[in-house]
Design brief:
175 residues, alpha/beta, Rossmann fold, five-stranded parallel beta sheet, 5 strands
């Protein structure tokens, strides 16, 4: 049996500060946005960290490719019309988000991509030299998790930089 810690839980050791403390070089934070409440929660974390470290934000929205009915022999819509509408809508919504972030004095830009979300997120992070990815999890479990998979899980597995996963239910440290 381990001896009890001499430090009470509410008085945990304080990490070193000053010249001996490790410096975090966070300059670019990538945040995938699907406009869900979960993603907006991750954005709050990203905004707070960007403010603290003087970092910029790269907001990424990924649209998955659409299988058109024309692929099955009939075409109720012109090819790519639906994807173009989704991209235009995403661009408009992202600009609103960027404007509100820039009002807080934080540099932010938008990247729209089409493809598999985890792959596009990881590729965008690598291409832009992101120092951190902040992604959310929707908290799916059981069969839903098996069928839909977890974008956050795949991002964690494939990213070349650290990934902060913001869970739906957790102790908040951003107010």
């Amino acid at each position: 049996m381990n001896a009890p810690s001499s430090t009470p839980p509410d008085r945990a050791p304080v990490p070193p500060t000053g010249p001996a403390a490790p410096a975090l070089g966070i300059r670019r934070i990538l945040v995938p946005l699907d406009f869900s409440e979960h993603a907006l929660k991750a954005l709050r974390y990203a905004t707070a960290l960007a403010r603290q470290f003087g970092a910029s934000l790269l907001l990424v929205h990924v649209t998955e490719p659409i299988v058109y009915p024309s692929d099955f022999g009939y075409a109720p819509l012109p090819p790519n019309a639906l994807e173009e509408n989704f991209q235009r809508d995403a661009q408009e919504r992202m600009q609103v988000v960027v404007a509100s972030i820039q009002q807080e004095g934080i540099e932010a830009r938008v990247l729209l991509r089409v493809g598999r979300p985890y792959h596009e997120i990881v590729t965008a992070a690598s291409e832009c030299g992101a120092d951190l990815i902040i992604v959310t999890t929707h908290g799916y479990t059981g069969l839903t998790h098996v069928l839909l998979g977890s974008t956050a899980e795949r991002v964690v597995r494939h990213a070349r930089c650290p990934v902060l996963v913001v869970r739906d239910v957790e102790a908040e440290f951003v107010r």
